[in-house]
Amino acid sequence: QSALTQPPSASGSPGQSVTISCTGTSSDVGGYNYVSWYQQHPGKAPKLMIYEVSKRPSGVPDRFSGSKSGNTASLTVSGLQAEDEADYYCSSYAGSNNRVFGTGTKVTVL
Amino acid sequence: QVQLVQSGAEVKKPGASVKVSCKASGYTFTSYGISWVRQAPGQGLEWMGWISAYNGNTNYAQKLQGRVTMTTDTSTSTAYMELRSLRSDDTAVYYCARYSLTASDPWGQGTLVTVSS
User: Which pLDDT score, from 0 to 100, does residue A1 have?
Assistant: First the structure.
């Protein structure tokens, strides 16, 4: 199972928006609406930010949104804040009880 | 609140085995699975597999088949991940997380496993 493809880095100034892509295949991202996104600060455990493509868990700011088109999912962070600087990983169900993670994107707030 | 607490850091020699524990609290243990994910130093997240706490069914990542075993003890709401025949490239932080089809959430604090001679 190959990792989903994410850009290595993304950046934006405070208040701006940044969008991270997550490209897979019809066997994972394109085949199921079970895409999730995780935020990871240095030395910390990942935190769920988006599940089922576009749903936000309780407590996650509505500045975070998710979408999907074909084999590519996206995470958008609007109104960037300093605390949004972190690594972000997508994950998708890949059938047969398997999951796959993305390669990860480092978001920098300029 | 839902919480997963993992066992402490381990140092192992190549060829040895390691067993990491993950104690769950704050929810009905058998209503979810437990997933295991590892992260090598400076690298991304790698899916290792998951176990159903309801019936013990497992699914392992293909590259770890034959070296990894995931188990649960429902009497103590604890999950275990054992990795055998350790190599230097198994050095990583190992995470457990409450698992369902939709996502892994929340995650344990992580356990650093260092493989070194």
Answer: 74
